[in-house]
Amino acid sequence: MQSRFFQPLARFGHDKIRGEGFGEKLLSRRFFPILRIWLGHWLTMRILRRLFSLPPLDRKLILGAVFLSCFFRVALRVCSLRRLVRFSSRIGARRPSGENPLWIAQRVQWAVCTVSKRIPGLANCLASALTAKALLSLEGHPSVLEIGVKTGDSASFSAHAWLKTQDEILIGSGNMCGYVALPQFDGKDG
Amino acid sequence: MTKDTQVVVSSGQVSTTLDDGVAILNLDSSMYYGLNDVASDIWKLMGEQRTVGTIYDALLTQYDVEPEVFHNDLFEFLRQLQEAGLILVDTDVLSHK
Hints:
The complex is a heterodimer of chains A (190) and B (97). Chain A is 55% helix and 12% strand. In chain A, helix 4 packs across helix 6, helix 5 runs parallel beside helix 7 and helix 6 runs antiparallel to helix 7. At the A-B interface, strand 1 and strand 4 of A face strand 2 and strand 3 of B.
């Protein structure tokens, strides 16, 4: 086969599977699926053990952050931003929970950052900010979503979202240099 | 669209001024738009409800441009803004009052 795309890939796989010694045993056709299942099982159990060792609030926030990050990641493709911001503001309790708002904000920040670090690509800055906003709202605490924009040297354009609660940036505080905030539209109904 | 047509920016957007123009976010389509200097001047004039003729007259005195060229460019730009849902035009303006 002379194709420059196909040939190197075929040779790479062939060498790996028929390699000498350790590689041959580890990657043999019979052993590899068993190893993969065992590794998957071991990782799942490890995650579950860690999850259930967390305090109830942290566990709730982590599970909420995973679910909401997935939801917002998909929803941002099909729903309007205005609708999603309104939704994340209104899903929560009408009265704040008895916990200290600052402490709740810290736990939400921890949960959202943990989920976005552990599952790369799951949540961008906007999905993370919306997730944190919804989690805070579920605990009965208000927050404000802001979006900033900037143009670069070669007319490149970029946008960044962050979430503020009690006048402090909770999510998206890194890499804010040069962004000009758009007027607040949180709660702007059309 | 004629010179008597009323135009105003839509409430479904937010915009801010940058060093080299204006950036607009359409809250319904979640799309960002960038405007250059001339377009930014037109955009700023539409902050309040005006007729297209008022905008045309105001900007024609500011820029050294052939009236016919400016007329065509202005109407084309307004048509694009209307298509993007960033401005309300005449009947839309009246129904949102």
